[in-house]
Amino acid sequence: MSTDESLSISGPLDAEELRKIDAWWRACNYLSVGMIYLRANPLLKEPLSTEHVKHRLLGHWGASPALSFAWAHLNRLIKRDELDVIFIAGPGHGAPGVLGPSYLEGTYSEVYPDKSEDTEGMRKFFKQFSFPGQIGSHVTPETPGSIHEGGELGYSLAHAYGAAFDNPDLIVACVVGDGEAETGPLATAWHSNKFLNPIRDGAVLPILNLNGYKIANPTILARISHEELEAMFIGYGYRPYFVEGSDPAEMHQKMASVVDEAIAEIKTIQKSARESGIAERPRWPMIVLRSPKGWTGPKTINGHQSEGSWRSHQVPFADAGTSSSGLRLLEEWLQSYRPEELFDDNGRLAEELRELSPQGQRRMSANLHANGGLLRKALKLPDFRDYAVEVNRLGQAEHENTKPLGEFLRDVLKNNMTNFRIFGPDETASNRLQAVYGASKKTWMADFLPEDEDGGELSRDGRVMEMLSEHTLVGWLEGYLLTGRHGFFHTYEAFAHVVDSMFNQHAKWLDTSKNHVPWRAKVSSQNILLSSTVWRQDHNGFSHQDPGFIDLVTNKSPSVTRVYLPPDANTLLSVADHCLRSTDYINVIVADKQKHLQFLTIEEAIVHCTKGVGLWERASNDQGQDPDVVMACCGDVATLEALAATAILREHLPDLKVRFVNVVDLFKLQPNTEHPHGLSHREFDSLFTVDKPVIFNFHGYPWLIHKLAYRFKNHENLHVRGYKERGNINTPMELAILNEVDRFNLVIDVIDRVPKLQIRAAHLKELMKNEIIENLRYAHQHGTDKPEITGWQWPF
């Protein structure tokens, strides 16, 4: 039964509305097929030939019709009720279902004038899809209206909720693929409704598209009963609405009815909460859209079912350019959408269909929230100097490095109560950032119990986001940043790996946006604090000892990645202030939460962090002379042990000339031809010499330093100590010794590598070996380190 034959089907759409909305959707589907298959003859003005078909057929058809179907029905409500809506496409390679609407709304041609709304523009629009040097097969930064990279599944719903936080008038429509729904990140993201406040936040309308298949297998949620699926979403706290079927006319009426009801319910929830001032957790609506995979495509191909089958997931048939039967099938498929009814002779969408789209920034493809840098306002930052730790002398007093940062972030929150949030997996207090609760408590829309009043720090209007899912937290943060706001994420260092692939995708998004999509405005940087670090995980043991996240960061584009390892509280404050002001970066900061010796005054810290790497004059004794050795370090514990080793050398070998160099900005160790923060060869040679041994004590895996610095002249004399996967339940010194980053092994390294010491310093070398044995014995006997270790201070 065709749409034209079924206009009498009852529903909220009258016959004319039904005819037009179906025609607009047919135009979307026509464009989707054209993108996958055609490089010429876009409107079939002449019989289709193999010359019109792309040589390489790439892309994904299966999810695209449902995406544009949802888009069409959302447009109707946006236009009728003047709604503010953005669209997130979860299905990984559903770009045709988003690009088509963007083109029909005119936004694509506005952003890319060569893809004009005419026959030639449509030809270019088709040809660019999945074509070398052009755009990919998934929703990417080049796609107007998108904030979600479709290259990896699982993050769409978390991104949607992140976009809705602090956006009270925004509705985020998020189509979740049923394959995507099987991923861990997506499964936890359903719980985001326990954090959405109907007074101050916008709304998320999840639309689960059950098309039944992944690339080659059925999807789980499509193969359970209606009752089980409904119970699952009721259990998640939603009110599910179902739109199921395959007949276009019936589905249009069902979808129109359900979208009407869902949007009305959202408005009712918000109106009630905002008028009463009472923020309780409602049962938010969501939609289950059960439609065939590859909907409206060929029913069968070569005797096998295509529509409603996994066979329509990607390119339903690949012989359109090589066989007459494939070419005929493609032409019949394209003609089934009746393009002559949809586009005029010049290739422009018919006027009666153009009227269906919202206007200006109401278009989902042109909504400002989907280009959040246009809405971004700089943070009102307090002066970080006001939170400084007093340092009278190098290495005398101890302080928890992250505690002043928490006090600084508390006041950042106070000054920015509508556009800044802090995200962390149940570890805000653990990471010594608990001062932030003085400005805002933890967001919590679920039930409260009496015991929560005693230090639970929960609030309906909190701005500290805690959930034991790094995936969901980072997804929220990314959605929040990409729609124009600011945020800060912290986690235990070892467990940052949970979001390795999320980091990868966001880095790729930023790199593409920054370097290849000039119309995208700058967004706030993603700021990541790694605390509870490897060298102070002696109590949790081997499982919590992994400094490798920063290795991953160094693999990504130097235009968007930054890594900082401040050695004390004041350098951490300086780094944090810099990162919060920055745009279009991922800033990774490594700073432990435990008490550590303090090294620099706040003014010294500012200078040191501005340079990123520098000599510490008070630790060096080579002034005016060539050093015999360079003692270099990067990281808090690495700096402490390097400083202690330098003190031993200066005490026992007073004529030895030691240069002490500390690195805060890790990328200073790359040449400036490889990273914009890198040192020139002359700068590196000046600091690290061209021929003297360099003993480098590093926070992370030692080979990372070699990877960064291998191009420099003195690399052959660079000897790096770092974590070597040796750990258990150890004392801090025992753990350092096991990995040979301790002061005693560093002294031995110097003796072994400075030629004049190899014989004359034999007694000191023996003393260091004895110290290693004694410190291990003491740790195993007493369960703690020796007092002279725990209470050590810089003696000079």
From TrEMBL:
Keyword hit for Zinc: no
Where in this chain does the record put each Xylulose 5-phosphate/Fructose 6-phosphate phosphoketolase N-terminal domain?
Answer: 14-374
On whether Lyase is a keyword of this UniProt record, the answer is yes
Q: Which family does it belong to?
A: Belongs to the XFP family.
Please give the name of this protein. Probable phosphoketolase
Q: Which InterPro entries match?
A: Phosphoketolase (IPR023962), THDP-binding (IPR029061), Transketo_C/PFOR_II (IPR009014), Xul5P/Fru6P_PKetolase (IPR005593), Xul5P/Fru6P_PKetolase_C (IPR018969), Xul5P/Fru6P_PKetolase_CS (IPR019790), Xul5P/Fru6P_PKetolase_N (IPR018970), Xul5P/Fru6P_PKetolase_ThDP_BS (IPR019789)
GO BP terms: namely: carbohydrate metabolic process
Query: What region holds the Xylulose 5-phosphate/Fructose 6-phosphate phosphoketolase C-terminal domain?
Result: 593-794
One Pfam annotation reads XFP_N
HAMAP family in the record = Phosphoketolase (MF_01403)
Task: Provide the leader sequence positions.
Answer: none
Residue ranges of coiled coil: none
UniProt-listed Enzyme Commission number(s): 4.1.2.-
User: Which keywords appear in this protein's UniProt record, sorted alphabetically?
Assistant: Lyase, Thiamine pyrophosphate
Which cofactors does this protein require? thiamine diphosphate
At the top of the EC hierarchy, this enzyme's class is lyase
State the organism named in the record.
Methylotuvimicrobium alcaliphilum (strain DSM 19304 / NCIMB 14124 / VKM B-2133 / 20Z)
For this protein, the record's NCBIfam families field holds:
PRK05261.1-2, PRK05261.1-4
Q: Which GO terms describe its molecular function?
A: aldehyde-lyase activity
